[in-house]
Automatic annotation (TrEMBL), chain B:
Protein name: Sugar ABC transporter permease
Keywords attached to this entry: Cell membrane, Membrane, Transmembrane, Transmembrane helix, Transport
Membrane topology: Multi-pass membrane protein
All residue ranges annotated as the ABC transmembrane type-1 domain in the record: 118-307
Any one Gene Ontology cellular component term annotated for this protein: plasma membrane
Family per similarity comment: Belongs to the binding-protein-dependent transport system permease family.
Keyword field contains Nucleus: no
GO biological process: transmembrane transport
Taxonomic source organism: Faecalibacterium prausnitzii
InterPro entries in the record: MetI-like, MetI-like_sf
Superkingdom field: Bacteria
Keyword Cell membrane in record: yes
Subcellular location: Cell membrane
TrEMBL record, chain C:
Highest taxon of source: Bacteria
Keyword Cell membrane on entry: yes
SUPFAM superfamilies: Periplasmic binding protein-like II
PANTHER family tied to this protein: ARABINOSE-BINDING PROTEIN-RELATED, POLYGALACTURONAN_RHAMNOGALACTURONAN-BINDING PROTEIN YTCQ
Membrane-spanning residues: none
Record keywords, A-Z: Cell membrane, Lipoprotein, Membrane, Palmitate, Signal
Signal peptide per UniProt: 1-24
Name of this protein: ABC transporter substrate-binding protein
A Pfam family reported for this protein in Swiss-Prot or TrEMBL: SBP_bac_1
């Protein structure tokens, strides 16, 4: 989706210019780019290159790296934990991105027409988990999920939904779902702010004109508001995808990837491989595979985006 | 954009709209209210929990409202570890000092470590924000408005790197920071945040909106590149910078992973890391953990409430162009 | 452009100046280094060795009794500085949840601490085996070898005979029961309160009595990982006489019939949960707040803890009674904890020397070692320290457990991997995998790691 946005802006009419002018502009451009490039190349691209290089080595603490060719990659695809982690990573992204978008759109469209103070209050409340910070929020969620005295079991039993305590984070069936639920609460804040603002900016006269013409609420939404908030939706998709891929703190603090690797994501498994198993080369190979997958996804969308134009 | 929005506002509150508060809407608002309670609950629990007695917080049936308010948790938090309020080091000093330790030219008074963590976190977030906005505004402008060799390649690189989780480059980054003598300094957290290309991408989107004729006119008038940038480009992308500033601030505040990897000594921790450590060290003392969590959450929430208008406006601005 | 050049030349100048300073400092230190080496060779003479080199050293310590508390550690450092005012010691406190990762990142980040306090399983079997530690052979004088218990000594060195740990204190890890609840359900008849022992059948009968007495959660095989692994290992190994490794500490033997039977029995017992959502520390919390009636992650430091109530009482005032792990044979083999100091080799001889001076003072100086051990709330590792707990009822009672100490096998190669795999194995059993398969996978993975490191 990233590329969708990008592609729209790529085509620019290219007037013929002299080569001296081009050279001059190139120099000026790079001077503008320089500060940013230092950081981008130095702390993103350079480590990425090192990552690719190290992935061909058996690398561990305090020992010269041994070249092993593609051995790390071969091992990766026969490592059930890695496959599981890959699957979990995509489950998190595939579930949390659409749910975040849909939920925040639903909330926003309901609260946008309320009196100003109410809109502001709701928007604020939904934004609270974002500003509270995932570590502080996790402290409470850990207690809520507790097997023995957590609030979910307490309320569940009080209301009669469950008759026996459920070990939310200790059970393979629920653990990943629990993580995703927390992730959702910490990621809808921003989209709601965005949607409330975008919906508020939709030209109301057009909506009313449509309603006069007999369109119902749903049609008015789908035909007029939805296209108008499309750029917002795309932006939300981008930031939510990025956030979901980066989900790490929740896993490290709540389950450490367990039980039985059922909440391992690639991001956590890389950390685990590096600092529990001391296998740096193997961890880097994982990173490369994830990077390639993300790059392919981006490239596919780039092509799709280009065809659109 | 904001001008048109204002014009629309009166229309939005049209009486006919409110009259048609359908059953669905009422139901939706009730549901959302329930959700809102769930969202606000963690914060509520942190704040009330931090004032509860040990017995109340450890009780197996939840105590919804503190029966007795006590300050012991905060006293314990502040009586625990301590650290200097600030330490300003000579750049690369550790390279040259006799024992490989940083050379400090200014060290603040000793305060409870939690206060220092707050200082570190604010410093990290503010510096990341400033550096990101400054570098991204320049780069975004160049990418949007200038033709140069390698532009397409660079842009592809930026777009591809945008969704890349930082964990991927964890080991190389750690080694790099080590060789730059930046490990266990706040800069090791700041630099990768600044390097993350989302800001450049966002600022490029904003800079697209600058009319090319204006830039041409400035060039014909003989304005230098720097002058054009400062007097024409910057004012036009100001909303974008605002959006990026808020986005970076929140993101770096919550960037637990880089902090976890790069920072180790008590005086260099951030508040998130401090809370996580507090939790690991005192799993029996829930009240203390809550006090730490409250200390981490409340200041930024107050900042958020004060600047709510700018926050929401800033975030929304980002999307309009994004 | 111009600016950056002038700045760089400025830095160069600073660099040249401070390099000169560093050289001067090195020259100064190498002479006094010789002095302090001499003093450590003859510990008796170390009393007057106050002319040691000036140095800043970093000590990282895990929460080893009072060594995890800043007040206690600062007191000890103060008495060290009274004798060696030129060595500045800064302390960081690690925890068992993130501590290992923190040390590992610091090693990769090129700023490992100079001194670290933990046990041979980390200092010898992990970081020592990885070659990042400095050998402490010169601290292990003949007198020291004579004074320190042999089982402890052998745990502190690797196969090549290099010592990577200089020990300070030790204890036996045990389990604990909520005695008030046990009496309430009439199960105290199963417990020998004098020897603190019980048979496996008595243990299971106690669990059953508690469960039937309305305590749904009697005990938990906690397995979310990180810390407290000795408790789960010990209960499983002791029940039917299984072992964790072979006697020579070369391979893992947890897949023996005895161990499989123990795991199966624990898994099938009502009231015992294989709980992947909690770790050892959280098990203790649950035991203290009355949720669980037994704890497997126990030792004297827990018994003495007064965070929530007086020592030896749960939060609600129930009596906590420490017990040896149950055995069929009546001969419990408790896991020992040995703690002491190791030195990371950061390539700075002056710091290594200063760190050795510190160790020599804290753990070998006859005037200090008693206080250092007392601070830990554990037991001394050397005979000469004597009975530092004379007259202390709790400690004298607890010292009974020291007689049950088993083999210190935590220095088997591949230990770090084995520990991680152990949690995974318990988690798999908890989620219903066949015990034999799960244990076999554990042994295969752990032995592969052992073979790779040996």
């Amino acid at each position: 989706m990233v590329i969708f946005l990008a592609a729209k802006t790529v085509k620019i009419e290219e007037p013929k210019r002299s080569s001296a002018l081009v050279r001059q502009e190139t120099i000026a451009s790079y001077l503008f780019l320089l500060p940013s490039l230092i950081f981008f190349l130095g702390f993103v691209i350079y480590p990425m290159v090192l990552c690719v290089v190290t992935s061909f080595f058996d690398s561990t603490m305090n020992r010269a790296d041994v070249f092993v060719g593609l051995a790390n990659y071969k091992e990766l695809f026969s490592d059930p934990v890695f496959i599981g982690a890959l699957k979990n990573t995509f489950i998190i992204v595939i579930v949390s991105v659409p749910v975040t978008c849909a939920f925040s759109l639903w909330v926003s469209s309901a609260i946008v027409d309320l009196p100003e103070w109410a809109t502001s209050l709701f928007r604020c409340v939904f934004y609270l988990p974002v500003v509270t910070g995932s570590v502080a929020v996790t402290v409470v969620w850990k207690w809520m999920y507790n097997n023995y005295y957590g609030i979910f079991n307490y309320l569940g039993k009080a209301v009669g939904l469950i008759d026996k305590n459920i070990n939310w984070l200790g059970d393979e069936k629920y653990a990943l779902g629990c993580i995703i639920l927390i992730l959702l609460t910490t990621s809808v804040g921003q989209p709601i702010v965005l949607y409330v603002s975008a919906l508020g900016n939709v030209d109301q006269s057009i909506v009313e004109a449509a309603e006069v013409d007999g369109a119902n609420d749903f049609q008015a939404f789908w035909k007029i508001k939805w296209p108008a908030i499309m750029p917002t939706t795309l932006y939300i998709l981008v930031i939510t995808t990025i956030n979901s891929f980066q989900c790490f703190a929740l896993i490290q603090l709540l389950t450490s990837g367990g039980p039985n690797h059922s909440t391992d994501t690639i991001m956590y498994y890389i950390y685990y491989t590096a600092f529990k198993l001391y296998r740096y080369g193997y961890g880097n190979a994982m990173g490369v595979v994830l990077a390639v997958i993300i790059a392919i996804l981006s490239a596919v969308q780039f092509k799709l985006g280009n065809q659109d134009n | 954009m904001s001008a048109t929005a204002k014009k629309q506002k009166p229309l939005k509150r049209h009486p006919s709209k409110l009259k048609r508060m359908s059953a669905y809407m009422i139901l939706a608002i009730i549901l959302i209210s329930i959700m809102a309670v769930l969202f606000a609950f963690p914060l509520y629990w942190i704040i009330t929990g931090s004032f509860k007695t040990g017995a109340a917080i450890n009780s197996t049936t939840p105590e919804w409202w503190p029966g007795e308010w006590v300050l012991t948790n905060y006293q314990k938090l502040f009586a625990g570890k301590s650290a200097p309020l600030w330490q300003l080091a000579v750049p690369f000093g550790s390279r040259f000092s006799a024992d490989g330790e940083p050379i400090y030219f200014s060290v603040g008074p000793t305060v409870p470590a939690a206060i220092r963590w707050m200082v570190n976190t604010v410093f990290m977030a503010v510096v990341s924000m400033i550096l990101t906005c400054a570098t991204a505004a320049m780069a975004g402008y160049a990418l949007a408005k200038k033709r140069f060799v390698g532009r397409k390649l660079l842009f592809t690189l930026i777009v591809c790197a945008m969704a890349l989780p930082k964990q991927v480059i964890l080991i190389p980054l750690l080694r790099e920071m080590s060789s730059l003598n930046l490990y266990n300094t706040i800069w090791a957290v700041i630099f990768p945040i600044v390097g993350w290309p989302f800001g450049v991408f966002l600022m490029k989107q904003f800079s697209e909106g600058i009319p090319t004729e204006m830039l041409e006119a400035a060039r014909i008038d003989g304005a230098s590149e720097a002058k054009t940038f400062i007097s024409i480009v910057l004012p036009m992308v100001k909303p974008g910078i605002g959006a990026l500033a808020i986005f970076t601030f929140i993101n770096s505040w919550n960037d637990y992973f880089m902090q976890l990897i790069m920072l180790s000594s008590t005086s260099n921790l951030t508040i998130s890391l401090g809370i996580a450590k507090l939790q690991a060290e005192n799993s029996t003392d829930f009240g203390l953990i809550m006090a730490g969590a409250a200390l981490a959450a409340v200041p930024i929430i107050i900042i958020f409430l004060i600047f709510q208008k700018y926050f929401t406006k800033g975030i929304a601005m980002g999307a309009v162009k994004g | 452009m111009k600016k950056s050049i002038s700045r760089r030349s400025f830095l160069k100048a600073v660099g040249a100046l401070s390099a000169a300073g560093a050289l001067a400092a090195c020259g100064g230190s190498s002479t006094s280094t010789a002095a302090s080496t001499a003093s450590s060779a003859a510990p008796a003479a170390s009393a007057e060795a106050s002319g040691s080199a000036a140095a800043n050293i970093k000590l990282w310590t895990y929460p080893i009794g009072g060594w995890g508390k800043d007040e206690t550690v600062q007191e000890i450092i103060a008495s060290f500085n009274a004798k060696y005012p030129d060595i500045k010691v800064t302390v960081e406190y690690l925890d068992y949840t993130n501590g290992d990762d923190q040390v590992n990142t610091a090693i990769e980040g090129g700023s490992a601490p100079d001194l670290i306090m933990e046990g041979p399983e980390r200092l010898v079997a992990n970081w020592g085996a990885k070659g990042v530690m400095a050998p402490l052979n010169d601290l292990w004088t003949d007198d020291a070898k004579k004074d320190i218990y042999e089982s402890v000594e052998s745990a502190c060195k690797n196969d090549a005979g290099d010592y990577y740990e200089y020990p300070l204190c030790m204890t036996a890890h045990c389990m604990a029961v909520n005695m008030t609840k046990v009496k309430e359900v009439g199960a105290d008849k199963y417990i020998n309160t004098d020897t603190h022992t019980w048979s496996t059948d008595d243990f299971l009968a106690t669990v059953d009595a508690l469960y039937k007495g309305g305590y749904e959660n009697v005990a938990a095989i906690y397995c979310s990982g990180q810390g407290g692994d000795q408790g789960t290992r010990a209960i499983i190994n002791n029940m039917y006489g299984g072992t964790f490794t072979d006697a020579a500490h070369t391979k893992y033997t947890a897949d023996s019939a005895e161990n499989i039977k123990a795991i199966q029995t624990l898994h099938d017992a009502d009231g015992i949960n294989f709980d992947a959502s909690i770790n050892g520390g959280e098990e203790i919390t649950l035991f203290r707040n009355g949720t669980l009636q037994m704890a497997f992650c126990w030792n004297i430091a827990q018994q003495l803890n007064t965070d929530n109530n007086d020592a030896g009482l749960t939060n609600s005032g129930d009596e906590i009674f420490p017990m040896a792990f149950p055995t069929a044979s009546g001969d419990p083999k408790l896991c020992g904890g040995i703690w002491g100091f190791g030195i990371f080799n950061n390539g700075d001889d002056a710091k290594i020397e200063a760190a050795k001076t510190f160790i020599d003072f804290i753990a070998a100086d006859p005037d200090q070692v008693g206080a250092s051990v007392l601070a830990s709330t554990y037991f001394p590792v050397r005979a000469s320290v004597g009975d530092i707990y004379a007259g202390n009822e709790i400690m004298s009672e607890y010292s009974k457990f020291m007689n049950y100490l088993g083999d210190y096998y935590q220095i088997t190669p591949g230990w770090a991997t084995a520990r991680t795999e152990w949690w995974n194995m318990l988690q798999r059993v908890g989620t219903g995998e066949d015990v034999t398969t799960a244990v076999k996978t554990f042994c295969d993975n752990a032995n592969a790691a052992a073979a790779a490191e040996a």
